[in-house]
Amino acid sequence: MSDQPSILIVEDQKKVARLLSAYFLAEDFKVDVLHHGDQVISSVIENRPDIILLDIMLPGLDGVTICRHIRKIDAIPIIMITARVDETSILEGLETGADDYICKPFSPKQVVARVKTVLRRCGYDKAKAPRQVGLFSVQSDFRDVSIGSKLLNLTPVEFGILSIMMNRPNTIFSRQELLSMVQGYEHGGYERTIDTHIKNLRKKIASTLPNQQVIVSVYGAGYKFCPE
């Protein structure tokens, strides 16, 4: 297994999917998101995540049918999510092969905790070795980022921003996306505060890599992390 657990979030409500993605990215998961049930089985076969967060009510194939199909070919941990709280629905999901069941509305922190619990129960043990991205080394357990032997002295927000960008190199993140992912809620008119954090990150990186632009501004869009 990779030192980063991978999660597939299957949720047709895009706002909910974005919120969950933000929390799992901040916890150093590799995250994929699908919004339509018909896409799930082929994606699982091709990419095989370490765990699936699966909404029951989906366009196309519903979550129970998807779970039943996956259980015929793989034992990937599956946590069902639904707004249906009656006992029959819960038992149907569990009897189909789901490992756990979470009802809406939920706390994203609770979802992350339940996912980690299921992963541990199913034998997943994240490696303790640092993750390498270009010249950068990330030790998530200690919230440390190093360039070679040089440890960057990052604030918690700076670490969160850099870690999220490093999870998806060369991907453009808007200011609001970065703040929402790090803080877990919408910041409204305060999204420009990200510029201060980025400025500080650049200074700290430049102290070790003075001639390399690692965090790149994309005019009108946001920022991206370029490790090479």
| CATH class placement of the largest domain | Alpha Beta
Strand content: 15-25%
Tally of DSSP helical segments: 8
User: What number of structural domains do the residues give?
Assistant: 2
CATH topology of the largest domain: Rossmann fold
Q: Based on CA inertia axes, which overall geometry fits?
A: elongated
Could you explain how this protein is built, in words?
The chain is elongated, with a radius of gyration of 19 Å. About 5% of the residues have low confidence. The protein has two domains: about 120 residues, Response regulator (Rossmann fold, 3-Layer(aba) Sandwich), CATH 3.40.50; about 100 residues, Winged helix-like DNA-binding domain superfamily/Winged helix DNA-binding domain (Arc Repressor Mutant, subunit A, Orthogonal Bundle). By secondary structure, it is of the alpha/beta class.
What is shown here, in short?
This protein is an alpha/beta fold and 228 residues long. The protein has helices spanning 14-26, 40-47, 63-71, 87-96, 108-121, 156-167, 175-183, 193-206; strands spanning 6-10, 30-34, 51-55, 78-82, 100-103, 131-133, 136-139, 144-147, 150-152, 215-218, 222-225. The two termini are 25 Å apart.
